[in-house]
Design a protein that fits this description.
SAM-dependent methyltransferase; 7 strands; Methyltransf_25; methyltransferase; seven-stranded mixed β-sheet; transferase
Length: 218
Amino acid sequence: MLAKIEHRTLMDRVYRHQRHFYDVTRKYYLLGRDPMIAGLNPPENGSILEIGCGTGRNLILAGKSYPHASLHGLDISNEMLATAARKTAAAGLSDRVGLAYADAADFNPVALFGRGEFDRIFISYAVSMIPQWQDVIRQAASHLAPGGSLHIVDFGDLKDLPGFTRTALYKWLEWYHVTPRKDLFDVAERIAAGTHCESEARRLYRGFAWISVIRRRY
């Protein structure tokens, strides 16, 4: 419980001011988000959940890309949720988006959104900031509808980048409490195998970004 409280406090402190210019600055290095959203392809009138929805930027893009899908987002930062509510309303998506405060490692979607499963769940650049990230992935996979899929985009191992660039980037990410999960693909594969799912791995931009997909069988 202490770890959850500390993480919640940290996220509110980090984003209390950053949320106002977060989207403008992050678009230059949170690569792979748009390809990940383009690959969601939910069924007609399907449901989409974003874990760690932040400012709502990704939910807005998903809403425009999939106009018949219902959208849901949860975050542990009330500061970010306030921005997400404002931005999704400005985008005209208030009637399609449900937002909720919750810990991604332990949440009850029925209590939050009135449904227990989702056709698509995605996590964008959040597992690198969540201490219990493996629990988050496991929890998310457990809420996939039959035929559903979990899509994760985050920093990769950066191994194909020049050495100086890689070292500098790791140090910069450390300042923002970000830890790339070099075993993301292995963990996703283990979780998929243990939940009767299949996993896929995709490397982008010389290892700068990774996309991991866990698909639940019908």
